[in-house]
Write a structure and sequence with these properties.
alpha+beta; 2 helices; 20% helix; elongated
């Protein structure tokens, strides 16, 4: 037992974070969020995200509870 666990006891630490995915339109942001949720590649139903998609259920990875926020991409225009 480390001295920190002796000092603070055996409390279970809950790790939380918010994950915001930004990028150009069609870059695969929604596909990445779906992959993190299911653990499987999602190849069908490629819908475009309109506005902001805040996932209701957190994604749990290695003890972390992630709240995913998928922001719809924008077309890039160069002059």
């Amino acid at each position: 037992m480390s001295w920190l666990s002796k000092l603070f006891g055996q409390k279970k630490v809950e790790l939380k974070a918010s994950l915001v995915i930004l990028g150009a339109s069609g870059a695969g942001k929604t596909t990445l969020v779906r992959y993190l949720e299911t653990g499987e590649p999602v190849m069908k139903d490629p819908r475009t995200t309109l506005g902001i998609d805040i996932r209701q259920n957190p994604i749990t990875i290695s003890g972390w509870s992630l709240s995913a926020i998928d922001v719809g991409g924008q077309e890039l225009y160069f002059n």
